[in-house]
Amino acid sequence: MSVKSTSLSSPASEASASQDEVLAPSNLVAFAGRMWAVLFLIALIVFFSIAAPGFFDLFNFQAVGANMAVLLVLGLGQTFVIISAGIDLSTGFVMGLASVASAIVMQSLTGYPLPVIILLGLMTTLLIGLAAGTVNGVLVAYMRVPPFIATLGTLSVAEGVAYVLSGGPPVSISTRGLGFFGNGFLAYFHPEAGVSFLGMPDSVTGTAVRDVVGFFPLQVLYIVVLASFCGWLLGSTRFGRHVYAVGGNPKAASRAGIPLAWTLFKIYVLCSVSASLAGFLYVLRFNGGVANAGDALMLSSVAAIAIGGASMLGGQGRILGTVVGALVIAVIQNGLVILGIDPFWQYVAVGAVIIMAVLVDQAKGRFFP
Amino acid sequence: MTTLAPHPVSAPVSIPQVPHPEGLTPVLRCRKITKRFGGLVAVDQVDFDVYPGETVALLGDNGAGKSTLIQTVAGVHRPDGGTIELDGKEVDIPSPLQARDLGIETVFQDLALCDNLGAAENIFLGRELPGKAYGFLPGLNNARMRSEAKTVLSELHINIRNLEAPVRTLSGGQRQATAIARAVYWKAKLMIMDEPTAALGVPEQKKVLSLIETLKSRGVPVIVISHNMQDVFEVADRLFIMRRGRAVADLRAADTNANEVVRLMVG
Asked: What was the pLDDT predicted at B12?
């Protein structure tokens, strides 16, 4: 039998791969399907810009960016978990526990230099994240407990410990200067004193402070750094490739020599560390920690990931998608507030968007690749 | 066992054997491989050799133990008894990764591809080439992996236009070809194919069979597990038949026919 060079291309793959058919209607539908979250975000911005006076404003956009920081960071690690076909329900209370624990440590250090306080607070945060992630990772990766159950247990433990540590009410930190790291800007401008970086111009005092405008919130800087890191980790490294493989076909991944359990373990540790960092951002922003700080945010972060195009069945998703998803939620919340609509309606709006995201995801297989 | 045997042999020591040239070292030599699952003896003291450049069909009814035997070689199961030699050296194969490191590549029945990844990504799965991300961060060399994938696929006369498209968008034959290309790219010393033509259309079956011929022409020994007699006689040099965990015959393809093989398989 001779080797023939017959093509194995199926008609379907030829249609989707052909370069000159990019502008065909079906490809436009496919393009819109892949990019719908971005298109939807643009539509939302246009809508609120017209309907809500004061929405289309640099300072409002900065506020949106700063407000979404905690939600997004909570979602960054979760994105890895969801791509691996898992779920981490514990992120909200790991975030709360990290905020409480680091706030207690930072408050007990009152009087020490600010950098020491921040550094030890950050270390406490990371320790909480590593501990929770290790528990989740061992349970899911090595003891084969379904992620839903394992992380539900961790959720309850983290919640309990957070309430025991804090006693219930928020733990506040009275160190001066800490607020800047949570609410400050990269640059400031005052009509008379001019521009200054990482702090208001020294000459500005008293009521003149009201004329100072800030540019680029530090919270936005933090999320740019963290999202870039996660984007690189997921999109450009072996580990990231293995996350997709584990979510796509764990059996195939393991037969290809990918250490299944170790990869899953790292994913859950990463997720808890990212949740704890969300808690730290919360501490910086509000100068205190609360046990239930992230309670409502866990589901919102999963919503952001779903809107960003990740499949809840695993194997699919991107950090950039999660960023867009978080922006969609933040813009809806902000726009509805400016419109003066009862804030409870935002839950309805976000819920509708989630359902839309899932429908688009399902249509993907049927109507376009 | 004699009561069960309408054919001349059933004990592993006395099955009909193809004479092999003296002094030629088998690529794979299995001796007295035994694998039990609880009380079930799936593979019972089987001797199995594969010589350089030959295609061996491993045949047997469902539950004959052929997949289990092959999975001990592929590192999926660990045998409870017996030894495996590769190129004359005894080896321990505790994991699929170890098997791949030893040069044993397996194309599994369920393909072992990640449907959500592209052909190039699948070919390099678990052995990604390192490179740079954004020019300065450690990352993957995607361009090189794509071009290498393109080269090996075209060497095998496989046409996949978009190496980045998820393999779930490819046809069954293209997917099978991707799995085979992976084995070829990584210079398999021994290639194992579990039901390579099952679930394929006729033209794609032909293509896969021609790929097996290509592998043979490159001197890579291939073990094919199959139910399809026509396929078996088209590509195999030798037939190794199992029944109820035991080896029952080892025949040259030219010396036998489908009727005899079926009779040996069902006993």
From this structure: 43
Contact B108 A255 (CB under 8 A): yes
**Residue A272: its pLDDT value, please?**
98
Domains of chain B: 1-103+189-196+221-267 (3.40.50.300), 111-187 (no CATH)
Count of structural domains, chain A? 1
Whether the CB-CB separation of A174 and A112 falls below 8 Å is answered with no
* Cα B236 to Cα A224: distance, rounded to the nearest angstrom: 59
What number of other Cβ atoms are within 10 A of residue B240's Cβ? 26
Which chain B residues have a beta carbon less than 8 Å from that of A232?
A: 133-134, 137, 139
pLDDT tens track for A218-258: 999 999 999 999 999 999 999 999 999 999 999 889 888 89
- Which residue in B has a C-alpha nearest to residue A365's C-alpha? B169
> Which tokens in the block code for residue A146?
């379904």
Q: Is A3 on the interface with B (CB under 8 A)?
A: yes
| Closest CA relative to residue B238, chosen from B26, B8, B2 | B26
- Check which CATH number belongs to the domain holding A169 and give it: 1.10.3470
Q: What are phi and psi of B36, to 5 degrees?
A: -115, 145
Cα(A59)–Cα(A52) distance, integer angstroms = 14
pTM: 0.85
Assess B126–A contact: CB distance below 8 Å, yes or no: yes
| Continuous H helices in chain A | 11-17, 25-51, 58-83, 91-108, 114-137, 147-166, 178-183, 218-236, 238-248, 250-255, 260-286, 297-307, 319-338, 345-367
Let me know the angle formed at the C-alpha of B92 by B88 and B94, rounded to the nearest 5 degrees.
150
Q: Do A232 and B133 touch (CB under 8 A)?
A: yes
| A232·B160 Cβ contact <8 A | no
Token pair for residue A359?
A: 């429908």
Per the structure, the complete domain to which residue A294 belongs is given by 35-174+221-364
CA-CA distance, B94 to B184, in Å (whole number)?
22
| Other beta carbons less than 10 A from residue B27's beta carbon | 22
Please report the residues numbered 28 through 87 in chain B whose beta carbons come closer than 8 angstroms to any beta carbon of chain A.
Answer: 76
